[in-house]
Amino acid sequence: MAISHFLHYAFIQKAYLAGSFVAVLCAMLGLFLVLRKLSLIGDGLSHVSFGAIALGLFFGLYPFWAAIPVVLVASFFILKLTQKARIYGDAAIGIVSSLGIAGGVILASLSGGFNVDLFSYLFGNILAVSTQEVYMSIGLSLVVFTCVMLFYNDLFSVTFDEEYARITGIKAERINLVLVFLTAITVVLAIKVVGIMLVSALLILPAATALQIARGFRGAMLISVLCGVGSVLVGTTASVFLNLPAGATIVMCGLLLFAIALTVRNLRR
Amino acid sequence: MATVLSVENLSFGYGPVDVLNHVTFAVEKGDYVILAGPNGAGKTTLIRLVLGIAGPYAGKVELFGHSLSGFAGWGRVGYLPQRVNAFNPLFPATVKEVVGLGLLSQKSFPRQITRGDQFRVRQTLELMGIPDLKDTPVGELSGGQQQRVFLARAMVSHPELLILDEPSTALDPQARESFLESIRRLNREQGITVILITHDTDLIGRYATKVLYLDRRVVYFGPSADLCNSPEMSRYSGVCPPERAG
Predict the structure, then answer these.
(1) With an 8 Å Cβ cutoff, is B70 touching chain A?
(2) How close A157 gets to chain B, by Cα (Å)?
(3) Half-sphere exposure of A147 (CA within 13 A, CB side)
(4) Which residue of A6, A89, A101, B95 has the smallest Cβ count within 10 Å?
(5) A210, closest residue in chain B (CA to CA)
(6) What is the DSSP letter of B30?
(7) Which residue of A has its CA nearest to B159?
């Protein structure tokens, strides 16, 4: 199939469009999360969204509309557990994430099985994204992107040195809340692209790749975004031509970019 | 003379453990105060309280005549933390990006770095003698260079009060001398008020105009020349020569 012909397919255009917007968000937020040692929050929140999607299906709601508020609340709980319950962030993520999975499994069992296959959300399918989901991805992506731009220096300062950021008058608790809320929305959006099981890869891999070769923070963010979008576009295309699952192929492309960056870094030394 | 920092009857503790008891002193404009004392004396805690990052406390703290709770002029205060504390050497940040963070104290939402700010960053790097390092990742610098970068971050907002927490700990003797000399110049030539926390009591006679000797309470506060005339100081060995203490 010629590439020019291939690009005329509506499902490919929708996949590229929704995937690119979500990849930009994951790459930007992932950089803050990786540097703050909060990489696994994406994994935890995606597990919560499994429960939330089951909840939506159980009550006959559109699953993503149910997932967004539930995941937002879960992200708030992760933050509060870390701050108030005297436990480390990874333990807080573990607690909330297992609650999500357990809740999802119980709801699936109570319902006696859903008409829509809950387990299809585990691995996503960007090639089956609907027009409504494209609009939702673009709309929410623009909201998240605007927030990141408005809070860019606050997020950078808190990530670099939280105590110093407080001294310069930045409300670090508020910025942490902004970061986890934006991550929660992004995780829900990314489920359609790579599925619940692989969301954290879309958050972590582009950032980890950028950290191998970037010298400055803006440069790291740019490289992270390019890697994220590149993985989605190449991975989606390759999955069609090679007849492979789209989510897993996107993640493999991200891993390949990471391996290249690691090699470049080692050659530089 | 204008009072830059005023602390009255300040007491603070972690649970039942008292860390500071009824601490009272005032720092005037142009002072170079060395804050010294034994380990666990409460020096860093005192500075954290003054900077509003610890609390709650009993007593009164005022910066530039304003109560700490309502103080909004953080751009007037520059702070150099202990370098090794929080800095991740693998963090991808260039010198100019890190120094630019010092300007955020003067900005309200959304805090954006403008071209004018970038010019101020370049000026400050020149003042610190490191203009060529602006695009270098901070993690690739030597200890002395990193310390200058963090001093530049503290200085970029043109502060009137500069607080330095053990700034020379990680430096070799040559870098230490050069760094302390630049602090002295900032105090004498630009009139910046300096509070420097140190364990190194040798610095007292060489740089400070005043000394605050702390041991959970104020043991001595006054001109550095009179420190060793204080009878209280006889209890602290190694600070004053034996024949002068008390």
Answers:
(1) no
(2) 6
(3) 21
(4) A6
(5) B92
(6) T
(7) A168
Residue B197 to chain A, least CA–CA distance (Å): 17
Residues of A with Cβ-Cβ distance to B90 under 8 angstroms: 211
What is the token pair recorded at A109?
């069992």
Q: What is the pLDDT of residues A48-100, one digit of tens each?
A: 998 888 888 888 888 888 889 999 999 998 888 877 767 777 888 888 889 88
Type of residue numbered A231: S
Give the Å distances, CA to CA, from B235 to B34, B36, B40, B125.
19, 14, 16, 43
| CA–CA separation, B160 and B187 (whole Å) | 10
Residues of A in contact with B137 (CB under 8 A): 215-216
Angle of CA points B84, B86, B87, to nearest 5°: 75
Q: What's the sign of the alpha-carbon dihedral B114, B116, B119, B120?
A: negative
Model confidence pLDDT, tens digit, residues B105-132 = 888 888 888 999 999 999 999 888 888 9
Q: Other CB atoms closer than 10 Å to residue A58's CB: what's the count?
A: 18
Which chain A residue has its CA at the smallest distance from B99's CA?
A157
B101 and A156 in contact (C-beta within 8 Å)? Answer: yes
Give the model confidence (pLDDT) of A181-220 as tens digits: 999 999 988 887 788 878 888 999 999 999 999 999 999 9
Q: Is B101 on the interface with A (CB under 8 A)?
A: yes
- Residues 133-162 on B with a CB inside 8 Å of A are 135-137, 153
Strand ordering across the sheet containing B77-80: B77-80, B161-165, B193-197, B32-36, B210-214, B218-223
Residue A258 near residue A201 (C-beta atoms within 8 A): no
ipTM above 0.90 for this complex: no
Q: For residue B149, what are the CA distances in angstroms to A166, A219, B159?
A: 19, 20, 16
Gap between the Cα atoms of B90 and A5, Å rounded: 45
B91 touches chain A (CB under 8 A): yes
Model pTM?
0.86
Own/partner pairs, B173-179, CB within 8 angstroms, 24+ separation: B175/B142, B175/B143, B175/B144, B175/B147, B178/B144, B179/B144, B179/B147, B179/B148, B179/B151
A217 to B93: CB separation less than 8 angstroms, yes or no:
yes
Beta carbons of A214 and B92 less than 8 Å apart: yes
Helix locations, chain B, DSSP H: 43-50, 95-100, 115-127, 143-155, 173-190, 202-207
